[in-house]
């Protein structure tokens, strides 16, 4: 049964690869794509998303532009890393100045729909009750705002699959912005808290599985894209840039989240109660998993009811086969 999916993106390199995987998976019918600021500002994210859809001859898929500022205090100035002794913007470093590994694509001919992404999300979910799989590969600002404005939509979404969080459930479940915080949650922890506190049925694909060495992109992945087509040139360029800037550890976070909608067998998943640290410095955006014994929780008058299903294992070979074979067939 084909799943109707909405993908919420902050199109940088791995978002683009996730969109291409979704477009080339018969199990998924991409109803629309919503954009939000994250790796770049929402204008550039929207431009990149339109360019990727046009390159993939999928420009008929509507794109709705969303929030440009997080619900949380903006910490963009902290998204700074030091490379060769110089301070650079993390998003620009890892995704390139244009967000697509500085690959040159023509300016998009298509434009986003007039509706704001938050309104578009609410409308699409309400007009397709219990049919939409919502895949988020970005900060949760649009989705957090949508469930604030119309809480009832949470129960109308069939499933929410999010790339985000670091849950300490595998040796790779450490942060990528702070020691404990993953970028999508760190960028807007208040929005993430709205999502985890809502009635959305969320599956979290966190760094625990997306930083697993078995899914790291390497140069030999490029052997799948040698046929000389524009799409293969684009995909090769994205992967090469990601490997170069990934300091030898380039992870396809967003396509891994998309693969959870295609083949759930790739993952081991367990239910947990997760709370979000919405303030702080080294712990802003931490996804805190309740692991205390039930008695320790209840004696403090708290409950341990799970609010999310968290990925705690990945079959890296299965994912890489799906990812590389599906994308190379597009070329
Ligand atoms: O932490 C990885 C996530 O942050 C990915 O979605 C990547 O695109 C960035 O947004
Ligand atoms: Ca992303």
From TrEMBL:
SUPFAM superfamilies named in the record: Nucleoside hydrolase (SSF53590)
GO annotation, biological process: purine nucleoside catabolic process
GO terms of molecular function: purine nucleosidase activity
Record domain Inosine/uridine-preferring nucleoside hydrolase: where: 5-320
Alphabetical list of Pfam families matching this protein: IU_nuc_hydro (PF01156)
Keywords: Glycosidase, Hydrolase
InterPro entries: Inosine/uridine_hydrolase_dom, IUNH, Ribo_hydro-like
One term under GO cellular component: cytosol
Stated name of the protein: Inosine/uridine-preferring nucleoside hydrolase domain-containing protein
Annotated source species: candidate division MSBL1 archaeon SCGC-AAA261O19
Biological classification of the source: Archaea, Methanobacteriati, Methanobacteriota, candidate division MSBL1
């Amino acid at each position: 049964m084909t799943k109707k999916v909405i993908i919420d993106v902050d199109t940088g390199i791995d978002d683009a690869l996730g969109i291409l995987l979704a477009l080339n998976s018969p199990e998924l019918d991409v109803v629309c794509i919503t954009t939000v600021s994250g790796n770049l500002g929402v204008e550039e994210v929207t431009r990149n998303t339109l360019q990727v859809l046009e390159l993939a001859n999928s420009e008929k898929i509507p794109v709705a532009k969303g929030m440009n500022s997080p619900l949380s205090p903006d910490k963009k100035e902290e998204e700074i890393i030091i490379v060769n002794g110089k301070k650079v913007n993390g998003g620009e470093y890892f995704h390139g100045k244009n967000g697509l590994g500085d690959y040159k694509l023509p300016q998009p001919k298509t434009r986003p729909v007039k509706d704001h992404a938050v309104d578009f999300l609410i409308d699409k979910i309400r007009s397709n009750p219990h049919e939409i799989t919502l895949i988020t590969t970005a900060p949760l600002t649009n989705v957090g705002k949508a469930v604030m404005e119309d809480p009832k939509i949470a129960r109308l979404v069939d499933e929410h699959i999010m790339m985000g969080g670091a849950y300490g459930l595998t040796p790779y479940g450490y942060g990528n912005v702070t020691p404990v915080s993953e970028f999508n949650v760190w960028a807007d922890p208040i929005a993430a808290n709205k999502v985890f506190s809502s009635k959305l049925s969320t599956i979290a694909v966190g760094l625990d599985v997306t930083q697993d060495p078995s899914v790291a992109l390497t140069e030999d992945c490029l052997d799948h894209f040698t046929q000389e087509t524009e799409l293969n040139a684009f995909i090769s360029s994205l992967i090469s840039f990601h490997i170069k800037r990934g300091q030898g550890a380039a992870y396809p976070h967003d396509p891994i989240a998309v693969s959870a909608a295609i083949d759930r067998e790739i993952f081991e998943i367990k239910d947990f109660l997760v709370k979000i640290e919405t303030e702080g410095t080294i712990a802003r955006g931490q996804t805190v998993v309740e692991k205390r014994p039930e008695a320790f929780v209840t004696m403090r008058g708290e409950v341990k009811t799970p609010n999310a299903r968290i990925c705690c294992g990945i079959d890296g070979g299965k994912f890489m086969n799906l990812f590389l074979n599906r994308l190379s067939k597009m070329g």
